[in-house]
Amino acid sequence: MLTLLSTLVSFLAGGLPKLLDFFQDRQDKKHELLLLQAAKERELEMAERGYIAQSRMEEIKNEAIFAQTAASQQSALLNHDIEIGKGASTWVINLRALVRPLITYGMFLLLCAVDGFGFYYAIKTGVEFADAMALLWDEETQIIWSSIVAFHFGSQAFKK
Fold first, then answer.
1. Is residue 11 one of the residues assigned to a domain?
2. CB 150 within 8 Å of CB 10
3. 24: enclosing H helix or E strand
4. Is 119 buried (19+), middle (13-18) or exposed (0-12) by CB count in 10 A?
5. Residue 110: in which H helix or E strand, if any?
6. Nearest partner of 122 among 109, 134, 132, judged by Cα
7. Domain span at 71
């Protein structure tokens, strides 16, 4: 039970940035909806007065402003990433991107090595397979391993 709970928590922790993005996106959409509502009211008011052509011009301006805002936001995000890596060598930037996969692969190799040597020792000393398995793959090991794997693949799933 603890293994399942640990796996679930680790999987969800990998998606925490996406969850925060979800709430930010929700606020952005709420703000855009208010802007569109105000534009719609203005358009109806202008249509009542016979200014339909002007209304269309205002709509085009608003679309241009939204496009420019989105482009500047993307540019600001890219500039932020560039600033973080400024002054660092390429291998440091690449190493920063490899932290999560390296920890996952390192833990996997460590698990394989410990279990491999444990089984080798069990065979040499004549320990029963079931007893060796109970010692090598106990509940604590399962919890740690499932947390690591769920966090790694959970973050991969939420990136998409």
1. no
2. yes
3. helix 16-49
4. middle
5. helix 99-125
6. 132
7. 21-88
Show pLDDT as tens, one digit a residue, over the chain (160 residues): 777 777 777 777 766 677 677 777 778 778 888 888 888 887 777 777 766 666 677 788 888 888 888 888 888 877 876 777 777 778 887 887 788 788 888 888 988 898 889 889 988 999 888 888 888 888 888 888 888 888 777 765 555 4
Whole-angstrom Cα distance, residue 3 to residue 140? 8
Counting the structural domains of the chain, the total is: 2
Pair of tokens at residue 61: 């301006």
| 12 domain residue, yes or no | no
Q: Does 112 map to a domain? A: yes
Distance (Å, whole) CA 49 – CA 148: 64
Coil, strand or helix: which one is 130?
Answer: helix
Q: Which of 88, 118, 135 represents a domain boundary (last residue)?
A: 88
Token pair, residue 56, equals 């269309």
